[in-house]
Amino acid sequence: MSDNGARAERLRQDGNDHFRRRNYTAAEACYSQALVQDPNMTAAYANRAMCRFFLTSHDASITDCDAVLARDPNYLKAHYYKSKNLLALGNVDEASTHALLAYEACVAQGADTSLKMTKEHLLVCRKERWDVKERRRRHAARAFEREMLGVLEREIERDVLEAAEGGSEAELAAVREEGNKRLADLRDVFERARAKDDVKREVPEWLIDDITYNVMLDPVMTPSGRSYERESITKFVEKAGTDPTTREPLSKSDLKPNRVLKDACSWFLDENGWAYDW
């Protein structure tokens, strides 16, 4: 290791010490000095990105994450913190993309200790993305309702004016009554549409993990043909070493991705974001 490389490593270790004590400003300074000594130190970029996230310097943290990903496109920590920064900035679509990349990197690398963290963050991102879509949908629906009611009210007003000019009192009353009925009918249509949003919602049984009874995001299959959430079955196997259903010996290498069920779970959750809170 060159002199510059050795100095950079010492500074990085100093930064780690400050980070463990939650002195993020001092840690950021150490990582920055390390990068002066060695501009290609990927770990220093990644660690500085973490500091900057906790210091709420989100744009700068994203820049560091991008520097890491330019060197290693599968760097778990960089995808994870880029996602957290993007979510903090309100960019829910890109945040969800990088949250998924972080989770997939975790699975590919066998980083079981990070599985729960990356999965929970992915769920948070997807739930927030659905909430944003739902707010936009409801706002658009309310705007459409106001527009349609306004159109009908103006049409009824014209009919009433015409009846007032050339018709009898009875004809005018009939026009007003018909107009009020049309308005009431249209309002009822919108009320019934809103009521459908408020009905009790059920999560299908195939979406539920039989160990935790939570919704599944990344189901894997055991040799017995049963599917479980990757995180929960991994923990169960590490502890018990058996299949939860058959009690036959089971290891992590026996677990196979259930891609069809995974796609179905993703589709259901994308269309029914309320299920994240189930």
Automatic annotation (TrEMBL):
By what name is this protein known? Answer: U-box domain-containing protein
Could you state one GO biological process linked to this protein?
proteasome-mediated ubiquitin-dependent protein catabolic process
Is Lipid metabolism set as a keyword in this record? no
Give a Gene Ontology cellular component term annotated to this protein.
cytoplasm
Q: Which residues form the U-box domain?
A: 202-275
| Keyword terms, alphabetized | Isomerase, Repeat, Rotamase, Transferase, Ubl conjugation pathway
> What PANTHER family does the database record attribute to this sequence?
E3 UBIQUITIN-PROTEIN LIGASE CHIP
User: Can the keyword Coiled coil be found in this entry's annotation?
Assistant: no
Q: What is the protein's species of origin?
A: Emericellopsis atlantica
What are the protein's GO molecular function terms? peptidyl-prolyl cis-trans isomerase activity; protein-folding chaperone binding; ubiquitin protein ligase activity
